Amino acid sequence: MEDISYAYGPLQGNGDLGFLTVGAENLFGNRGDNYYVDGVGTLPVEGAELVVSTTPATPGETRVISFSAVGSRKGAWQNCASLSSDSFQGLNLACVDGQVATR
């Protein structure tokens, strides 16, 4: 098994007018799971860590993980992803900063 984990910082509410989805799915939308959808489920709190487990890749195979996000308030944001593996030592961390200019 391979895992992808999400660690949450402070959340400001439950989405735009209560519409918030927390979960993961594959590119085709036919595999995945939801943790919280529009008031149903458990809204993540600061410090919560969600884990998505996948089947390991074949040696030498490349896997791409992508996501999209929509800002509902003006302001700065930062998203970080960390990668650990038994293929290398340590933790690979990549962060990107952005700014929501308009809504």
Tag the structure with descriptive keywords.
103 residues; mainly beta; three-stranded antiparallel β-sheet; two-stranded antiparallel ribbon; globular
Percent strand equals: 35-45%
How helix-rich are the residues, as a percent range?
Answer: under 10%
The number of helical elements comes to 0
Q: Outline the low-pLDDT stretches.
A: none
Number of domains: 1
Number of extended strands: 7
Helix-strand sequence: EEEEEEE
Radius of gyration: 15 Å
Shape: globular
What is the makeup of the main sheet?
3 strands, antiparallel
Average pLDDT taken over every residue: 77
In spatial order, strands of the major sheet run 2-3-4
- The helix-and-strand class reads mainly beta
Distance between the termini: 39 Å
